[in-house]
Amino acid sequence: MKIVILDGYTENPGDLSWAGLEALGDLTVYDRTPFRDGDEEILRRAKGAEILLVNKTPVSGAVIDALSPELKYIGVLATGYNVIDTAAARAHGVLVSNIPTYATNSVAQMTMALLLELCHHVGDHSRAVKAGKWSRCEDFCFWDTPLIELAGKTFGIIGYGRIGRAVGKLAAAFGMRVLAYDEKAPAAPPAEKVDLPTLLRESDVVSLHCPLLPDTQHLLCDETIAQMKTGALVLNTSRGPLIDERALLAALQSGKLAGAGLDVLEVEPPREDNPLFKEPHCLVTPHISWAPKESRARLMDIAVENVRSFLEGHPQNLVNA
User: Fold this and answer.
1) How far lies 36's CA from each of 117, 150, 251, 267, in Å?
2) Whole-model pTM?
3) What pLDDT, in 10s, does the model give residues 35-55?
């Protein structure tokens, strides 16, 4: 059984082992596969593969056509699977699975890390102290930005799945009222389920935890941001295109929004001249909420089980069945 991984470096830069997958077939791992200029290198490397594993390398309908009938299974080394043409895979009888549960805790933790940084500007104050500002201070302390206490404020969650629920528990632990909007997920403590206009209107913090779908692209835009509290904070550890970056920038510059913490952007990697990088009230981290070693180790274990279950005839975590 020929197994090919097209972009293994992000999942395993050397601190994990591929042994679990090596035990299941003839494994070839490429750290990265270029695709910006077309599918040629993808096709060359994946030729003859019966099992293809990818993280962010796109697998188009044309690629699936070319790799059929040998290709039988595509495993996404992530939760989001929008890089795969699942309809084309289904048409060719190719099963596609993802890894839906591995990063719940780490993404929830990163969400709160962004929020706490927006509230206390820990990094900025530490750098100021090391630059000598505290040593020169006439008073026993100083702060360069307003500091925010979370207790008593309202935390709004858009998308109340596993990660949304985990984030809600953390927000409640800080003494926050928790609201959630999700058309499909059932209500569950600590959140009160509300409609989207209510959440936007009442939340001091709005945090995005929903998938990227046609009806969620630019969920936060001029129209929805206008419905939010003046001075609210926005967090996004889900998918970049959930936010219209132009509208977000305008809201930050006008003071409509007091700050944003983003672990994802509309285009990744971003252009160096992305105007959000110059916005002092916007934190941007490089899509790392999923990346602690503990989280990646869980991803590896589930990826191995996904492939094993496919080989044994009872595939799991299918997204195109």
Assistant:
1) 35, 43, 32, 13
2) 0.92
3) 988 999 999 999 999 999 999
